[in-house]
Amino acid sequence: MMLDRMEGNAELKTSVQQMLATRRLTHSVLLVGEAGLGTGFAARCIAADYLYPAGGAAAEALLRGECCRAVAKAGKRDSGTVETGIVREAISVSGMGSGGKYLVGQVTAMRSEIFNTSLSAEGRAVLLYHVERMNEESANALLKVMEEPPEGVLFLLTADSLASVLPTIRSRCVSFAVAPVSPADCTRYCAAQGVDKKAAALYSELFDGHIGTVLAVARDEARAAQVEKALELARAAAARDSYTAAVLLAAYEKDKAAAAALLTDFRAVAAAGLRSSPRAPVQGTQARQAVRLADAALQRLGAQVNPKVVLSVFAAKLRTL
């Protein structure tokens, strides 16, 4: 089964596989886990096993995300449409609005598609990524189809946390938690996916077994370069070297998004130090204080404080670690 390709999470896999084998799988499944844990991949695995129990080319394409996609234009309620993908039995929906929010046109387009087109013998799967980004209007549009779905349609939803999902959506799903694996297992899995073993080991330690994050960093040169900058910043923090930190951060003063991304990776490095990872430059009390400084800086960036001010204060406070 495709779900066997998911690392760890034995209880989740066993429960879902038993439901699929006895055809007792509920029509709505919510997979919950922090960003980078692979909830989207898990959802595609379940969809593939539901639609194509025997596997094959279509199942492989679905795992790669090559399915239909519901899209819309912001501010235009009637602009929603479903773009045809290689896998016609599956439709994916993810936020397209400001901040990654769902557009109601996407949900209504998906709803029309599954009600107005004939189902294949395999059925139909709808993949809804990060449903915590739904506003009340798009959630209400989704509820209309979740309450009385067409026969043979399986909804697979993902979210970063259970509490962030609207109660009306949450109550209509059976929920499963997706957990990280150990850094050692993460290293082994990512190396098997073609990632350099040394890089896999480093990123698995820094990101605490979050397979999706490790693969994303390893496969994106810009992302890997950002992590190296976060490590440089952590080395400056360990040395209480505010000057070196300020020079490094100066390149991010005019780009709030890039600054937030760097500080997020710096926080991950510091958190690895809290777990006593030897790959983290900061350890113990220094790591704890570094995490707090990163959290404070990220909060200030989110509150629209000038990035130059935020980064200058952050660099200056590193000398107190």
UniProtKB/TrEMBL annotation:
User: Short name of one Pfam family for this protein?
Assistant: DNA_pol3_delta2
**Which InterPro entries does the entry link to?**
DNA_Rep/Repair_Clamp_Loader (IPR050238), P-loop_NTPase (IPR027417)
Q: What is this protein called in UniProt?
A: DNA polymerase III subunit delta
Write down the species.
Faecalibacterium intestinale
